[in-house]
Amino acid sequence: MLSRRKIFAAAVAVMLSALAFTPVYALDNGLARTPPMGWNSWNSFHCDVSAKLVEETADAMVTSGMKAAGYTYVNIDDCWLLKKRGRSGGLVPDPKKFPHGIKAVAAYVHRKGLKLGIYESAGATTCAGYPGSIGHEKQDAAQFARWGVDYLKYDNCGDYQGETYLQRYTAMRDALAQSGRPIVYSLCEWGNKAPWTWAQPVGNLWRTTQDITPRWETDQPVDQYPQGIMEILDQQAALTAAASHPGAWNDPDMLEVGNGYLTGDESRAHFSLWALLNAPLIAGNDLRSMSKEVRDILTNREVIAVDQDWGGRQGYRVSEDGNTQVWAKPMSDGSVAVILLNRRRGPVSIATTAQATGLKPAGSYRVRDLWKHTDSVSHGRIEATVGTHAVAMYRIWAGSKGTLEMAAKKE
Ligand code: GLA
Fold first, then answer.
1. How many angstroms separate the alpha carbon of residue 105 from the centre of ligand 1?
2. In terms of CB atoms within 10 Å, which of 27, 119, 320, 356 comes out highest?
């Protein structure tokens, strides 16, 4: 007969091996190894979605150079469907908005070398009152897969029917896994239950906040709609360094670059900060009619490179002094991305040091300005005069390597 000690030892061994072989840092679907990049209809169009809008946006994504800069997903948000499920219980695309269904739109988007995203909710209804997916997860996931959907944004509206957030969000995760199609799983739980503490093995990205609005700041409490760029930023500063990983990203909501009340400088600051946070870069403006200034912001490859790089942790706040802040993010090649942020009105001088941002001590540093696209050399001090609601953004390399490479380029 087995002694109690042996049974206990065997149980411990089983538990340890389970721990060793099932790391739960990220959803194991191989997707979103870098923060997803694309577009979503909600911020500019709300319920006014259609096949025409999606297809014209896919065209614009290609002709504007956004596809070449890395944008891939064209995502339909709420209101794409009819208010009632079909006879066999399936979701029915609104025939007025999508006369040939979602499959035809997916095929169009795929022919452009892009991917299609769709929206549903982990409750009885979507936020705009259309049928939600709770209780229909398998059927809906299978339907999305048959249509050729590549990305699901899964919202948090409607009656939860007595289920916990974990039950609701894992039910769709499992249904997507069984659908046979790789589908990026974007949790839109608004940060209600601190998803950065539990969502890594559930989804590829999770919203950390209430909905964004195209304003620099709103003075709203952080748990209430709508949130300005600065309120959202403040919430990100409090997130743990360990939360995001390749395959599992904090999502401070879709971009408002080029929208509403944001000035050019505010849009540049918003884009820079989201890149530093390894946020999904999901544009929310009308790509068909954007200005050159907005296009240049969204396609700034040096800033996008910061977003798409993983050097071990997302960007973090190094220091703050009332209305000025310094943010930094380690890059995988040993350089550091740095943002000097002026939150207030009127120009202000902001300074930090290379060492404060995590760079090793060195006699000189190469400082690359990611908006001016110019290089300079520093002996450790990083300083700029930054205008109203604006940033200076740099990538900095320590020592002779960076400065020598720079000199070689100039020759
Ligand atoms: C919620 C989400 C938004 C958007 C709308 C659609 O508010 O947070 O991003 O998807 O629903 O109704």
1. 22
2. 119
Active site residue 265: no
**268 within 8 A of 255, measured Cβ to Cβ:** no
Q: Give dist(CA 382, CA 98) in Å, integer.
A: 52
Ligand 1 atom nearest 77 alpha carbon = 10
* 78 Cα to the center of ligand 1, angstroms: 7
Token duo for residue 156: 């948090």
The closest-lying atom of ligand 1 relative to the alpha carbon of residue 253 is 9
Q: Exposure of 159 by Cβ count < 10 A (0-12 exposed, 13-18 middle, 19+ buried)?
A: exposed
The predicted-structure confidence for 350-399, as pLDDT tens digits, reads as follows 999 999 999 999 999 999 999 999 999 999 999 999 999 999 999 999 99
State the amino acid at position 142 in one-letter form.
A
C-alpha 283 to ligand 1 mean position (Å): 15
H-type helices in 70-127, by residue range? 101-111
Instruction: Report the atom number in ligand 1 closest to the C-alpha of 207.
Output: 8
What 3-state class would DSSP assign to 88? coil
Tokens of 66: 């956004």
- Structure tokens, 342: 């002026």
Pocket of ligand 1 (CB under 6 A): 42, 77-78, 126-128, 155, 188, 190, 211
- Quote the tokens at residue 244: 């995001």
Q: How far apart are CA 221 and CA 227, in angstroms?
A: 8
- pTM of the full predicted structure? 0.93
130 Cα distance to chain centroid: 25
How many other CB atoms sit within 10 Å of the CB of residue 346? 8
Query: Cα angle vertex 182, ends 95, 189, to 5°?
Result: 75
* pLDDT of 4: 60
296 is catalytic: no
Substitution candidate for ligand 1 out of 40, 46, 133, 155 with most atoms within 8 A of CB: 155
